[in-house]
Known about the structure:
alpha/beta, DNA polymerase, domain 1, 2 domains, globular, 5'-nucleotidase activity, HAD-like_sf, Pyrimidine_5'-ntase_YjjG, Noncanonical pyrimidine nucleotidase, YjjG family, PGP-like_dom2
Amino acid sequence: MKNIQHVFFDLDHTLWDFEKNSDLAFQKVFIKHSISLSLEDFLTVYKPLNFNYWKLYREEKVTKEQLRYGRLKDSFEALDYRISDDLINEIAVNYLEFLPDFNYLFDGTFEILEYLKSKYQLHIITNGFEEVQTQKMLSSNIHHYFDKIITSESVGVKKPNPKVFNYALDLAKADKGNSIMIGDNLEADIEGAINVGMRAIYCNFENNTSSNSSVTSVTSLIEIKEYL
């Protein structure tokens, strides 16, 4: 990985442990609203629905509001749990409010950021909601490592749309030839970056065997040292 000057990271599922922090946020939501459902049962239904809604969101097929409401509405309906639309909307708001209260990071986050910070300019490109991403980074004490933080909402489109990557490169005063993207989503992060001419490292933390063998991948953040 020669001539790299700029390293762009995804945030959720790459540095910030979204699954663990999200589970804890929902635990807090369920307690606040006295939801008489098994949290484990809810999360089992919710997670694949949330995954599908985020795919639709990246593809501009649902709005942010439809995602926030729909993933909850569909989950409660699947579990035959009677709940009002007003309460679903309140839960949607509370969930995002509570997310930054939890700040679990993947193993090696601080070590790899300290290592890279002395060698490269570091940036974030995230599809996550703008109102919570900065709070997550501040509460987990990683915000200061990054020069530019680019959210899809600030661009108006989501990764893997090339506009996001080109906007990020312009903002960072970087060039596609001296930049690399590191993320956990093959479509949004890796293919999106490669399609605009950037290099990429796939964070294959779950050892996804269906991933493209030609893509540089790591199974832990510390492995990035082998390439940068």
